[in-house]
Fold this protein.
Amino acid sequence: MTGRPEQLFPLFAGLETLPGVGPKTAKLLANLAIAAPRDLLFTLPSSGVDRAPVASVQDAALPGVVTVPVTIGRHIPPMQRGRPYRIEVEDAKTTFQVVYFRGAAELHQRLLPTGQRRILSGKAELYDGIAQMPHPDHVLSEGEALPAYEPVYPLTAGITAKVMAKAVAGALSRVPPLAEWIDPNLMAERGWPTFAQALQEAHHPLAAADLSPASMARQRLAYDELFAHQLTLALARTTERSRPGQVTEGSGRLRRKVLAVLPFQPTGAQQRSVDEIADDMARPRRMNRLLQGDVGSGKTLVALMALLTAVEAGGQGVLMAPTEILARQHAEGLRPLADAAGVVLELLTGRDKGREREAKLSALANGDIHILVGTHAVFQRDVTFADLRLAVIDEQHRFGVRQRMLLGEKNAATDVLVMTATPIPRSLALTQYGDMDLSVLDEKPPGRTPVQTATVPVSRMDDVIAKLRAAVAEGRQAYWVCPLVEESEVIDATSAEERFRSLRAALGDGAVGLVHGQMAPADKDAAMAAFVAGRTSVLVATTVIEVGVNVPNASIMVIERADTFGLAQLHQLRGRVGRGAAASTCLLMYKAPLGDTAEARLRILRESEDGFRISEEDLALRGAGDVIGTAQSGLPRFRVADLERQAALMATAQTDARALLAADPDLSSPRGQAARLVLWLMEQDRALRLLRVG
Ligand code: ADP
Ligand code: MG
């Protein structure tokens, strides 16, 4: 199959081919992201109006929409210009008035002739104690009927409800009977309607419950979207997996040496992840795996074990961090362990220049360096490896797909392990990383004391500084994170510098250090080093410290204007403390009054330290796109599926899509052919391309 199936042509024809849609309407519909009849099908009503008839306006809650049979009484034309035209009507119990502020008298007389029976439907209200219905939405003759429940669509200027309803009806009439792509067992188990039936039901709700994401019709349509998306990811994964990889099987010799010198035992979750990764590396195809774990869950050890596996097999590994500080810290933390195993580990960053850099590069090309740690400098063109087996990318949401691609240029068979520190809800992980295999560190190393989290208004700054002075006197160390007031690093840096000066004035010059993104790299290093060594007690910082720095003695985290940060970010920042044995404190300073959302965010942080729970709450508060940042996330926009409320469907869709492809890799079986239809319907171009070349 090379092109779109003919069956689907009418759904992808121009909008003007629909009844009631001309070029002008078509252009306006584009404002609702509707470009073809297909898009109308997946634009579902956002609410509904109950038009079930009642005997009298007295039986309805006013103001509200009422549908009521009446006998038309006398017409009362306005006495003066600018006054409304009124018509008395009588229902089963009372008399009320229809009111027109516009329109010619003849029109009103033709529509509502005195003495006749009509059914009126529209919004009625009380005016001076008397019910009135201005401009009824519908006037029907007796015997005519309205649907008892009228769907209400999202509209845009120039598109009326009537135009929309007609266009949707036109699109619905073009839905051909299509072969079923959903697993028959799943269909039976859920009791879902067919695709065509689901569209009919979703567009013809009978009651408010039919608009809920829990309704059968909406579940099915959401599933269709998610299934098509997961099928695309599964196809990408299969393609990825069919690429030749390298069998990297370690002896365990180096890993055992490192475990022997570690002062602790790996957690169950670490051990499980290490095994999953080793199994994957041993397979003759390319690994593409995500290691997800909360701050402090011990990802670094897992990464090291994987890197050592590559070295045991006679190859090399690289660990890439998003910032200079982090790369340096990884290198420093890992070097003693590498030494213990007799493994050569080097650091390469943008700061390596001249002869030193050349020496590193040639050692790397010779295979004399076994593990390279660095920033994205490790992927520059002139960096060549003797035998690169594994790349670990400490992503922390700063690298994207592009960096992963760059890797392919170094060695197309290199196994890839991406580490992400921000736990993201399962539904989003599946959405964003569904083409990858997943290892999860869902268990924290033992022996941590929970962080006490408190909120304080900024007006109590003096108290906070006084407490800080007392804590510093006891030998404690603190981070002080400055607010993200502007979208500009320069301005954030200025506010950090101001806070640095005021804290130095309060605590003594030698006690306070400063790091921010605008500083010269050497100055940043010096400030970090002074803090790590305990020469400074307080480190004033912008969010550059968010990612990964590890100073176990630091037990206080002050976050100024916490109300301006995102939940995930606050969680990350707080994760910088609570790493040692001492009880830790996190002070979230906010500017009063707090908005509802900001208050909810700070409350969640006070209540929980579980990154996965926090991320779920974050999703509920913000919506899918925002959690990762839509622009960089590459998250698809779903029209029907609601990731917050239908998260479980995403997992089912992934299982189902992978199972289908395992049984029918080129989608040639009858169900596979049907699945191609849903890929076309959902405009999964990437999948269709993969199928074409495959
Ligand atoms: P992450 O990168 O996942 O935030 P790290 O790898 O930096 O976490 O580990 C955080 C701290 O926990 C480090 O000091 C590390 O040495 C320690 N750690 C890691 N694994 C364990 C374990 N199994 N038991 C005790 N401490 C551990
Ligand atoms: Mg880390």
About this structure: Residues 322 and 398 are 6 Å apart (CA to CA).
